């Protein structure tokens, strides 16, 4: 009887592990397809892989794009035949039921960037609900970058602080 319980427990663990890996494989396909859709200027596929209330945070502090605004902003780029080209070179995925989160290092026209975000299961399909794009800066270049950003960031801070107070 004890051997049967051990076998059942191991079989259950194997099933859970395979299921989690299967979900990670599906999420990898969604993220790769999403990036490819942008590179191919396939507007419908790109936005079809996001939730209806999806959010895209760009590299500029002012870029907090809710889905409809992001569609409007992106449409002219897609209409020109090429939006942007991001290729994942490293990715980590974490799954907890119907929610997953990830981080990825991307090869882009801006050189190395990081994408991170959240996906949700929607009617059995993984959809991107939240995406954050960041430009990666080597630690030894941070001081020089801060000098470049200082004036603009100071102005933006005033606006953000006023927004939080209201």
TrEMBL record:
It holds the Pfam family SnoaL_3. Keywords: Signal. Residues 27-137 form the SnoaL-like domain. The keyword Signal applies. InterPro entries: NTF2-like_dom_sf, SnoaL-like. The keyword Signal applies. Residues 1-20 form the signal peptide. This is SnoaL-like domain-containing protein. It comes from Croceivirga radicis.
